[in-house]
Amino acid sequence: MNWWNKTYLARLVDYDKRLGIIACVFVALTLLFNLLGDQMAPFFVWGMFSQKNTEQPSYPVLQIHVDGELLDLTNLPDPQKHMLSSPLMKYAAQQENNGVDPTAIFLQSKLGRHYSKIESAADIVLNDSTDLAAFPAWAHRYIDDIRGQESKEIDISIVYYRYGQDEMILQNYKPVLRHAR
Question: How far apart are CA 101 and CA 119, in angstroms?
């Protein structure tokens, strides 16, 4: 096994036997579970970037009106944009799922029969009806923090566009939340 001696894992076993064996067992189990069709989700989702990005029938765009004026999301720093758009999209998805957290649906689909093993831990981190009810006030505070001033009302919608020959064409409009103080 001359090729084995040249690998990183072989050098790791020589350097620190215990750590090397742990790494080898981890690699072997990862390969075994992937061959059996069970990815080690939610920790390692290898298929995450392996699919071709296909054209969608429509693309969702957040539209946030603050006191009647459209908030320009393009001027926000990326971390703020993500901390605003990601929870809003998840909130909208949870509303569509009759209050069921979309992460729960994802975990159930990935883990299948193994979901019951993590269900008690998942219940701690997944959003429930209490979190859903508290979200509009949180979103309002966060938008005010981003803008640096208080507002009376926020109105958030998802607008769906599709690509035309030379323009974006409005396909659909879905209100997500309205919150007033």
Answer: 13
